[in-house]
Specification:
heterodimer; A: about 325 residues; mainly alpha; B: about 300 residues; MetI-like fold; 12 helices; elongated
């Protein structure tokens, strides 16, 4: 019951924050130098005074700012995020069309980072001063410091010209289109390099986090008890200690969805992955404001969703929180 | 108040030894820092990078925007690092570009820290409705992915060095704010703060003179790391074509040459490596500082 109330409160809070993002979007567009109608007219290849006036009336730009804001909010409420003149279609359709590719990439990278990062951290925590542990520390420092787009470009160079065993461009083989199972395999092959590049940054962070938490868990009383009971070591580490190590990692991972998405924008640009990142890149190039603002809104929406999901998972995993504070 | 007595003389006083001089916390932290090999290595690397960026341009006075030879010239005796897609000297770009990149990083980090400190300090100190407002503002900025938000800002307001710096500084302060707030809330009810308040210190005085110096150690590490993040952001923005085309920077070199990576790998690899080394140096220094300043956390990592 308490959980439902908590969830409801969180969702209301989320909706309020998302409306605030829309208001911010609106303000930014109006603060930006340049007349939006002139920009649209420019995109259309010039327009006469009548067309400009018609556009002004159509977008309600001849009304007061407050009226314009309410029009904008009302439009968004029915899913109208404006029209992209560069892509020549409504922004919402554009985004929904690109969303799946970005979700494949981010979720694939996230799972890889969680699995590899935790594994590296746990193994290195078993011997904190061993050679492997030091190697993991170095890798994690390097992974943090290397600019993601640069890592991507270096991998592109390696697999594009030196050792061409993996595709480096796009999501599917355009020359020989595949169907059915072969298609899925093809997408999977194209997915390897982009998701590996994106995962590297997070592997660096999670391995560090896993290492610290595992070292702490291994010195805890319940681990000593488990060992004293005579449980095999793999069960002590893999079940008892790992559970408590995972909680902070899952929390951090959930709250980093924004960074994951921003990273995807850069990685998609490097590997020409046809997702929202590519869309951002194109709309920056074309000064396609409606698309850009809608992407900002959708990224906030995704971050918000990820936060709430993390919170729910966290409460389910950690019984202290479920029964403790409200 | 800032003097900590050395606590190592618990045994009977030995009169023949000279009395230990009391060291300031800063000096103690510095001594601790020099014991971390990776921290010292990072500091040396960072000093070297800064020296090259500051003194390099006068020692190697080639204009990084000048066309000095044919495009795509591989590294050789004439141009050690080759030329880029326009025929500009890559080495000159690396040396001169470091200035802009490091300057953007430092100033943006400073903005990040100032905003974070103000929001966190005001919220944590006053509590109540003011705190609730500050928390809401922080929450709001937290749901916008910082890099994406910076992209939108630079796209809207134009890719100039000042816009880029302000955009980077203005979007990534939330962690500093949360950290500062937590420190202020922890500190504000401690006895020495109550004593200062009883002695008649004003709120401004309490925040700036009493609480801030005590909250800084917790913030200094994330301030150091903020410089690294800002450098990565500058690179990311330039990579997407949002760099200032009139000022050479490492990010701009990467962004402009990336389409020609198969023709001239050197024009992409070297500026990226420069960013990598700078951020690596900064994070090594940050780790060393963390161990030196926050001894409570030292044993954990």
């Amino acid at each position: 019951m308490a959980f439902a109330t908590h969830l409801a409160r969180q969702i209301i809070n989320a909706v309020a924050l998302l409306i605030a993002v829309l208001v911010l979007n609106f303000c930014l567009i109006h603060l930006a130098p340049g007349d939006p109608v002139q920009v649209i007219a420019g995109e259309m290849g010039g327009a006469s005074a009548e067309v400009v006036a018609a556009l002004r009336a159509k977008y309600g730009l001849d009304q007061s700012l407050l009226q314009q804001l309410s029009i904008y909010l009302a439009n968004v409420a029915v899913g109208d995020f404006g029209y992209s003149y560069y892509f020549n279609q409504p922004v919402l359709g554009l985004i929904l069309q690109r969303l799946p590719a970005t979700l494949y990439l981010t979720l694939c990278a996230l799972s890889a980072a969680l699995a590899i990062g935790t594994l590296l951290g746990v193994v290195s925590a078993r011997r904190p001063n061993g050679a492997f542990s030091h190697a993991v520390t170095v890798v994690s420092l390097a992974g943090y410091a290397a600019p993601i787009f640069w890592t991507g470009l270096m991998l592109l160079l390696l697999f594009g010209s030196v050792w061409p065993i993996l595709p480096v461009v796009g999501m599917t083989d355009v020359v020989n289109p595949k169907h059915g199972f072969a298609y899925a395999l093809d997408v999977g092959r194209h997915l390897v390099l982009p998701s590996l590049t994106l995962a590297l940054v997070f592997i660096a962070q999670y391995s560090r986090l896993a290492r610290v938490n595992m070292i702490e868990a291994l010195s805890a009383d319940y681990v000593r008890t488990a060992r004293a009971k005579g449980l095999p070591e793999w069960l002590v580490v893999g079940k008892h200690a790992l559970r408590n190590t995972l909680i902070p990692i899952v929390t951090v991972a959930g709250h980093q969805f924004g960074n994951l998405f921003a990273g995807a924008v850069l990685v998609e640009t490097v590997f020409s992955w046809p997702g929202m990142g590519r869309l951002v890149f194109d709309s920056i190039l074309r000064r396609d404001y409606p698309t850009l603002m809608a992407v900002l809104f959708f990224s906030a929406l995704m971050v918000m969703t990820a936060n709430i999901l993390t919170d729910v998972v966290y409460r389910l995993v950690d019984p202290r929180i479920r029964t403790g504070r409200r | 108040m800032t003097v900590i007595e050395s606590t190592s003389q618990v045994s009977a006083p030995q009169t023949d030894l000279p009395a230990r001089t009391a060291a300031s916390p800063g000096r103690l932290a510095l001594r601790q820092f020099t014991k971390s090999p990776s921290g010292v290595a990072g500091a040396c690397m960072l000093i070297l990078i800064i020296l090259v960026a500051v003194a390099g341009p006068s020692l190697y006075p080639v204009d990084p925007l000048d066309l000095v030879g044919a495009p795509f010239m591989p590294p050789d005796a004439d141009a050690w690092f080759g030329t880029d897609y326009l025929g500009r000297d890559v080495l000159a770009g690396l040396i001169h570009g470091g200035r802009a990149t490091l300057a953007v990083g430092a100033v943006a980090a400073l903005i990040t820290i100032v905003i974070g400190l103000v929001i966190g300090a005001v919220g944590g100190f006053f509590g109540g409705a003011i705190d609730a407002t500050m928390v809401k503002i922080t929450e709001f900025f937290q749901i916008l992915p910082p890099l994406l938000f910076a992209m939108v800002l630079v796209t809207l307001f134009g890719p100039k060095l000042t816009t880029i710096t302000l955009a980077i500084g203005g979007v990534s302060w939330t962690s500093v704010a949360r950290l500062t707030r937590a420190e202020f809330m922890r500190l504000r009810d401690l006895d020495f703060v109550k004593a200062s308040r009883a002695a008649g210190a004003s709120n401004v005085n309490l925040i700036l003179r009493v609480l801030l110096p005590n909250a800084l150690p917790a913030v200094i590490v994330s301030a150091t790391l903020a410089i690294g993040v800002a450098i990565l952001f500058e690179g990311g923005l330039s990579f997407l074509g949002l760099g200032d085309p009139n000022v050479m920077s490492w990010g701009l070199m990467l962004g402009q040459n990336r389409n020609y990576i198969l023709d001239a790998w050197w024009a992409v690899m070297f500026p990226g490596a420069a960013i990598f080394l700078a951020v690596l140096a900064i994070s090594l220094v940050g780790d060393g500082l963390n161990d030196a300043i926050n001894p409570r956390l030292r044993r954990r990592s």
